[in-house]
Design goal:
The chain has 77 residues and is of the alpha+beta class. Helix content is 51%, strand content 13%. α3 links the parallel β1 and β2. The radius of gyration is 13 Å and the shape is globular.
């Protein structure tokens, strides 16, 4: 886990040539919301979806996340 937490993805986020959607659990204790704010500071065009739940919200809210990803992709066509 320390290795994962030590990764600084900001350079990749700055230079990524495609739209980026960040799905964040509002109660995430692994990647707290201030990290999402930092990502938005690095990339102003970042799209953020905050949903109920913690770090594994994708497992507790899969339909909501799937619908959001689908809409995000359709908006980018």
């Amino acid at each position: 886990i320390r290795t994962l937490l030590a990764v600084d993805a900001r350079p990749l986020l700055r230079t990524c040539p495609c739209p980026v959607l960040c799905v964040a659990g509002q109660d995430d204790q692994v990647v707290p919301h201030h990290n999402v704010e930092e990502m938005a500071n690095v990339r102003a065009s970042l799209h953020v979806l905050t949903i109920a739940g913690g770090h594994f919200a994708i497992y507790t809210n899969p339909s909501e996340i799937a619908a959001a990803i689908e809409q995000f992709m359709l908006d980018k066509e």
